[in-house]
Amino acid sequence: MSNCNHELAAGVARRDFIKASAMAAAAAVASGSTYSLPILAAEPNEKIQWDKAPCRFCGTGCHVQVGVSKGKVVAVAGDMNAEVNKGLLCVKGYHVGSALYGKDRLTKPLLRDGEGYREISWDQAIQTIADRIEAAPERFAFYGSGQWTIPEGYAAQKFMKGGLSNNHIDPNARLCMASAVTGFLATYGVDEPAGCYDDLDACDVLIMWGNNPAEMHPVLFSRVVDRRSRGEEIMLIDISTRRTRTTEACQHYLEMKGHGDLAIANGIAHLLIKNGTYNRKFVESFCNFKAPDDENPNLNGKSISFEDYKQALAPYTPEYVEKLSGVPADKIRMLADLFGKPELKITSLWCMGVNQHTRGTAMNALIHGIHLLSGHFGTPGDAPTSLTGQPSACGTVREVGTLAHALPGGRVVANEVHRQQAEEFWNLPVGRINPQPGFHTVEMWQSFCTPTDQGGTIGTIWVQVTNPGQTLPNLNKLFNPKGDNKAGLEDKFLIVSDVYPTATTKLADLILPSAMWVEKNGVVGNSERRTQQWFKMVDPPGEARDDCWQTIAVARELFDRGNQGMRDRDGQFIFEIKDENQQSVAIWDWNHYYDVNVDKHLFEEYRQFSRLKHKDLAPYDQYVQARGLRWPVVEKDGQWKETHLRFSEGYDPYVEPGSEIQFYHSTTGDDRAQIWYHPWIAPAETPDEDYPLMLTTGRVLEHWHSGSMTRRIPELSRAMPGGYLEISAEDATVYDLRNGDEVLVESRRGSLVIPVWIDGRGRPPRGTVFIPFFDETLLVNDLTLDAFDPFSKQPDYKKTAVRIRKA
Amino acid sequence: MSDDRPKLTPLVAFIVMSLAVVGYFTGLQSPMNPSEEMSPSTLSEHVGHVEESHSSGIPAATSYSDMAVLTATSVPHTRLDGLKSDFDLLTEVKIEPGEKAAALAMRSRNRAFNGAPPTIPHPIEQLSDASCVACHTQGIKLASLRIPQMSHNFLTNCTQCHVESAPQHMTAVQFRENSFAGLPAPDEGPRSFAGAPPQIPHSTWMRSDCMSCHGYAGLQGIRTTHPWRQNCQQCHAPSATLEQTLLASEPHFLSPPNVNK
Question: Is A77 in the B-facing interface, judged by CB distances under 8 Å?
Fold first, then answer.
C-alpha cells in the first residue's frame, strides 16, 4: 500500500483518486497501523513563490511576505525577519494582496469626451500631456504624494525643478506631516525623528498626543501593549478629544478641547521649572531657548534666555491649563511629575492630531521641548517620535523633497548653494533651478479653481498616487469648482494617474491607468528613517503602467520636441540610463522600461544628495538584502551599519566622541537644540450659537486614507461599509437621533447627509461629533475648513464648527 | 367584511409571531448547521445566545425569579467551568473524507486566503478586547456552539487583525467586486508514504497551538485522530520555507569522495 498514492495520482481521475485514498486511509485506520486523516489532494497546491515587500498602506512600514502563484498574488504573511513588525500585521496588511484585484481597475488611458470618456492610446495620452506643458510650462503643476516611491518622486522632482525650472510640485503629505517637518527643523535644524520604534520596546511611559495607534498604527501599538502580556509594566496615557480603542488600553485618558494640547505642553514645562524637576545639566549642555518672532515669522524665531522662557510660561499654572484644555489640573501635575522623574523612560507618539492643527509647528516644537527640558531624550525609550501615515511620506516627500520649496536631501530652492549642488548632481546648466518656491497644496488648488482671467495661474495639474478630490479640505472651494460648468474653468485641465476610479478621476480630463505596489519595483521610507526596497512580482492589468515611466515618457516626448529643459549640460536626456555595455536604454519606451532596473539607477543618482544632512543612504543592493535600513547608513569595515538613535554618542556615527549628545545641524550653529515657547492660541473655528458642535475627522482601522484600495477588499469593506457620524448618546437624545437615522450636517462651507452611529467606533464627548473620511460618497471634506499653519501650510481637519438636524 | 376583520387580526398576529419565534431559534442553531451552498464570500449568520440544551448536560442560566430559591449546591452549575463533558477526550476520532472537505470549506468562508486572519462571525464590542478574551482564551464546544481557542500566543489588540464579517451598525454592502483568488488551504501535508506522519503544510506562526484547530473544539473534519498524543511536532515537522527561517532551502553537503576509475 505504501506507494499507491503516488502511482494513483499520476493517472487516475481526481474523484476516483479521492475515493481510493479515502479507502486507503480508512483501511489504515482500521488496521491500527496509522491514524491518518483522510487524504483529499489529487494534485498538490501550485508552487508558491514568496518574496518580501513593505506593506502598501500606512507609514509604519511593516514587511510582508507576498505569495505569488501563476502570476497572481494569492497570499500574504507577516515577515518574521522584519524588525518593524516581527511577523505581525494588521487586518489591512493581511489583505493587501486583494487591493490589486478590484474588478474596476483602470486599464486604458481615458480622455474626456463631452460627458464621458473615450479610450486613447498611451502615445496619444503622453502627447496630450506634452501639448499642455509645451503650451504653458509655467502654468503646469505636479501634485503627488507620500505614496510615490522614492524613484517615482525623485523622477517627478527632477522633471519639474531640474527640467521645467518649475517649482509647482507639492504632495498630499502637505496635508499630513508638513507640521512635523517644521517642528523638527525649528528644534533640531534637520528633519525626522532621532528615535525609532525600538523605543517602544524600552519605554516605561508612552504618551499619545491626539493619536489612535490601536487603529491607525496597530502593529506599533501591539508592540507596546503586548509587552504587558510578558509581565512588563508600562503606563499608557491618551491625550485626545474622544475615546477610542487606544483609550481602552490606557491607564489615563485626558480628554481635551481642541488646541488644549498647546496648554497642556506649556503646563508641563511650567511645572518642571517651578518644581525644579527639569534636567538642568541637559538643558545647560545641549539646549537654547526660542520664542516666535511675531514681526518676522520664521522657523528660527528669536533667541530668549531661560528667564524669559520661565516668565513666558508663568501663566500656565495647572488651573489655567485646566481652563484652556478641559483637562483636570491634577492630571497636568501627574504628567509633569512623570517628566520630572529621570529614571523613567518616556516616549511620545503623535500623528494627525498634532499635525493637522493651525498651530501644528508650535505643537510639534512644544512636544520636543518638554522632552529636551526634562532630558527625556537620546537614550532607548526616551524619545519624541512623530508617526507618518503614508508608506513613503518620509522617504519620498521629506528626503527626496517633493515639496514646492525643497530640493533633494534637505535642500531648499531659495538657497543658492543648494541649487548649485543640485545642478551639479544633475549635470544641469547653472541657473536652471528656479529660486522662487512654488505653490503649496492649498495655493495650488486654489489657483487651479480660480478662472485664468481672475489670476488663477495654474492651468494644468497632473495628479499621481493620491485622491485630492476626497482629501483636500474645503472641497467646495479647492476642488469641486472644476466640475461646475459655471465656474469659468473650461480651460483648466486635470490629469490623474490612478489604479481605480476615484472622486478625483471623476473630474479628470485625462485618466491614466497606473501599476501599483508589487506590479512594479519600489523603494520607500517609513516613519523611523527606514528605507525599504522590493521587486516587481506580477504584471499590472491591461495597459496599466508605472507612474515613474509615465513621467519619464512625458519628459522624453518634450525632449524629442526640442525642449531645452529636458537636456543636461552635454545635451543628453536628463533621464539617460546606460546598460553595462554603456549603451543607452530607451526606458521611455514601455517595451524597454524593464530592460534595466530604473529604480536602481535613479536611487544611486539620488543617493549622492543624502550626505549633506547626514541622512546617508546605502547602495541599492544593500536594501535588496535587508528588511530596510535606518539612515544614516554608514560603511564601516566593509559593512553598512544603520543608526538607531540620532545625535547620541555610541549610536550615531556622526556624533563626536566625548560629546554625549550633539545636535550637529543646530540652527544656532552651536550643536544645541532649541526649546521653544509658543503661546496657547484658539482654534481657527470654535463652536458658537449658529454652529454649536465641534466636528473632528479621521480614519478607522479597516480603511486606509480615501478607501480607494481598502474599500475594494471584501473583508475590509464588509467590516466597515460606509461613512457615519459618531455622536454621544447624550447629544443623540438632544437631537432625537437613533442609530441609522440620517442627519444633515452643515458647516459654513458645505453640508452632508449621513447616517448616525451613536457612540460608534469611538466615543465622542458631548458637543463633539466625528466623521471618518474614507467614504467617497460621504465627503466630510465638503465641511472642513482650509485654514492652515503659518509655517508648514498644513490645514486643520480636526476642528470644524457644525450644526446638525435630523434629515 | 367588516365583521370578519376583528377575528382575522389575532389569527394573523399569532401566525406572524409563531413564525418569528421559530425563525429566531432556527437562526440561533445555524452556526452548527451551515448550509453547504454558501460561497466563500457569503456572510455567516450572526450568532446569538444559545438556547439551553438539557440533553447535552448544559445547565440553564439562572433567571432572576429563581434567584431567591437558589441553594448553595446549585450555584456552581451556573458556571462554565463547572460543566461536565459526556465525551471521552482521549478516544480515537474517526473522520470521513466528506467531513474533512466540509471543514476546509467552512474555514475558507471567513478567510481571504490560507493564512489570513479569520473574520469574526458574530457582533463585537467596539472598544474593548476583554470580551474577546473572555471566551477565546479557553475555547469551548457545546452542542450548538463552537468557540475556537486562540491559535496563537496571547496578543492584546484582537481587532487589529480580526474584523467583523458583517457589522451590526450598518448593512454590509459589497461596494466593488474583487477578483482576488486566495491561496486555498492545503488538503494535506507532504508525506513520504501513506502511513507516514505528514509534514505540517502551513506555517506555525500564529498557529502555534495545534489544538486550537485540531483539538476537540476544532472542526470535526480536521481534528486529530489520535488526541492522546500531546507532542505534535515530535512526529509532524514544520517546513523551513513556510516558517521563514532564512535557512538554505536545500541542504548543503560536502563533496563526495573522488573515486579514481
Answer: yes
pLDDT category, B238, cuts 50, 70, 90? Answer: confident
Report pTM.
0.86
Q: Which cell numbers in the block locate residue B148?
A: 475556537
**Residues 216-245 (B) with a CB less than 8 A from some CB of A:** 222, 224-226, 241, 243-244
Beta strands A140-144; A460-464: pairing state: parallel
Nearest to B127 among A245, A722, A755 (CB): A245
Give the CA angle between residues A356, A362, A363 to the nearest 5°: 60
What does the alpha-carbon distance between residue A360 and residue A678 come to, in Å, rounded to a whole number? Answer: 11
Which sign, positive or negative, has the C-alpha torsion A331, A335, A340, A343? positive
Q: Can you read off the three cell numbers belonging to residue B120?
A: 469574526
Residue of chain A minimizing CA distance to B202: A77
Cβ contacts (< 8 Å) between B198 and chain A: which residues?
36
Residues of chain A with Cβ-Cβ distance to B181 below 8 Å are 72, 74, 101
* A680 C-beta neighbours (distance < 10 Å), count: 21
pLDDT level of residue A24 (50, 70, 90 thresholds) = very low
Pairing of strands A235-240, A205-209: parallel
Q: Are A80 and A86 in contact (CB under 8 A)?
A: yes
SS3 labels along A16-57: HHHHHHHHHHHHHHHHCCCCCCCCCCCCCCCCCEEEEEECCC
Cβ atoms of residues A753 and A777 within 8 Å: no
Optimal mutation site among A37, A63, A215, interface B, most CBs of chain B within 10 A: A37
* Residues of chain A with C-beta less than 8 angstroms from the C-beta of B156: 222, 225-226, 228-229, 249
Catalytic residue among A147, A390, A421, A662: A390
Interface contact flag, B113 A4, Cβ < 8 Å: no
Q: At CB < 8 A and 24+ separation, what contacts does B246-250 make?
A: B246/A81
> Cα B111 vs. chain centroid, distance in angstroms?
12
Q: Is A394 an active-site residue?
A: no
| A345 is known as an active-site residue | no
Q: Is A176 a catalytic residue?
A: yes
CATH of A693-806, one of 2.40.40.20, 3.20.20.100, 3.40.30.10, 3.20.20.120: 2.40.40.20
Task: Specify which residues A639 forms β-bridges with.
Answer: A636
The residues facing A51 across adjacent strands are: A66
CATH code of domain A178-387: 3.40.228.10
Nearest CA in chain A to B167: A719
Which tens digits make up the pLDDT trace of A262-303? 999 999 999 999 999 999 999 999 999 999 998 888 999 999
Name the residue ranges covered by the structural domains of chain A. 1-44, 52-100, 110-176+393-593, 178-387, 693-806
From 1.25.40.10, 3.30.200.210, 3.40.190.10, 3.50.50.60, which CATH number describes the A52-100 domain?
Answer: 3.30.200.210
* Sequence ranges of the domains in chain B: 1-33, 83-119+139-152+184-245
**Residues from chain B contacting residue A87 (CB–CB below 8 Å):** 205-206, 244
> Are the CB atoms for A632 and A615 separated by under 8 Å?
yes
Fold for the domain defined by A110-176+393-593: Rossmann fold (3.40.50)
Ramachandran quadrant class, A444 (left: phi over 0; alpha: psi -120 to 50; beta: rest): alpha
> For B60, which DSSP code?
P
**Whole-number percent of chain B with pLDDT over 90:** 21
The minimum CA-CA distance between A103 and chain B, rounded to whole Å, is 5
Tens of pLDDT, residues A695-726: 999 999 999 999 999 999 999 998 898 999 99
Q: What is the pLDDT of residues A34-79, one digit of tens each?
A: 566 666 655 555 688 999 999 999 999 999 999 999 999 999 999 9
